[in-house]
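Session log. Operator J.P. requested a structure for one protein chain; no other inputs attached. Running the standard single-chain path with token output.
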Amino acid sequence: MRYLQLYTTKQVIGEENARIFLWRLLTGLIVLFLAIPVVSAQDFAKYRFDLADKNNNPYSIEKPEEFLSQRAIQRRIRQNIAVIESDLPVNPHYIDSLRSLGLRIINRSKWFNSVIIETGDSILLDSICKITFIDSVTLVKPSAQKKSLRNKFIPESCADLVMQTTQNDQLTMLNGHILHEYGFRGEGMQIAVIDAGFTGADILPAFDSMWINGQILGQRDFVDGDNRVLDAHSHGMTILSILGGNLPGELTGSAPKAGYWLLRSEDTGSEYRIEEENWISAAEFADSAGVDVINTSLGYSTFDDTLQNYTYKDMDGRTTRISKGVVMAASKGILVVVSAGNEGNKLWKYITAPADADSILAIGAVDSMGQHAPFSSVGPSYDRRVKPDIAALGVGTVAQGLGTGLIGCNGTSCSAPVISGLAACLWQANRQLTNLEIIEMIKQSGSQYQTPDTLTGYGLPNFANALSQIGANLPYSSILIKGIYPNPFINKITLLFVQLATDDIIIELYNIQGKMIIQKRYSDLPGGEFELTVENLNNLSQGIYIIKILSGEFCFVKKLVK
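Structure written below.
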């Protein structure tokens, strides 16, 4: 603007010259604008080059600190995972050679020893195929692609509505709030959210405490190649609010104290296989940074180029690129949680990749009554494994909207972060367990673990029961009382417990004068969530009573009325 003002000032060049200059400037800008589509990088095709080897690599598995963070190394040590060749970065000499040919490197994958490049020069591409260190070339995004007309997140609708659920439902229906009440809220855990963008996460109220407390650890964009993800789609922002949002009395995230990496791999303007490659690069970054959990509310089945489409036969956990990627992430000790897909009431019907992968958690959606949501993709995987693995609330899940208010979010995108955060909190309770052990404990706590189906897999997990089996170092008592009812009572009193240790429970009942009139000891209790009932209280007179519950060092006292 300063230069335009300079050349349009009459004192500098005179009025007539100013008119001539402005006309030439405007004409030049129009020509330049019209020329942009011809040379724009977005019109160039993008390819994956699979490289032949990692020979003469300057990095060594004996010195992992040169390419892995200390957190990533410690995660491997805790889980007895060796640093191997797939951890080594792509040979930088090969990268330099490709760049010297005028190719732009978009992303790279050390796990699969490949790079993503873009070029509009077909002759150059033919010659590149003859380079000895290149094994194969695969088109992952065609040139001059049309913008996709479909909404990639339908039927997952995130819109303001009259809440059918409360902010606690998504946690309490899984006993996830028990984790929080025992002090496990995600402190010390790191979660990578790989999504489509996080517009609004820097200004909306649900995220204020996350920024103030330094819980946003960083951001990377593997679509545009920069470090800004707050200028893209808002889908990831909504997911982040379910994970870490904090609006007292309105919204509590499933892991409100965890640290978060905001990573973008999804290009909402189109649907091509390059997004799977973007995801792998994002997951590799997350691995190197040392994250514990990856949440990805994305899924792939069909594309804008129908030649790239998958079939149900490909949903075997071993075929699609992204499913191979999540299995690799799991092999590095990361707990990967993915949405099952929103294809249940569509022609496709089945889970989408990477929900078909092994060693991860694929999450279906249920409503507030615990019933399968019709849009939630169904299983099994093509090779007949249980899918989805488990389910969580995905109808009316409370989240931060793009406006200042809360929304009800529908979709397996919304159920996945409920599980991701709670899984992180559960793992916080015992960091010596492996990612696969945590996954198995969550499955075993499922409401239909003995009889899994193709709608919700092992059902709704019970995180209180999972916590009771985890061998946690509890921050305080080994017992939690969820309810004592009825009050007033008539003939019996029922107590609902969550017990995390094997101590006996002693229940004592006193009258208002302090005289103990009942004492019962309960041994060999099941752990997790269970009920105990004190019966035959008809002979007690009306009045006020005191009930005391003892277990190990725990002591609880409450006033009751008959």
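Operator note: The chain has four domains: 2-39, 44-141, 168-468, 479-561.
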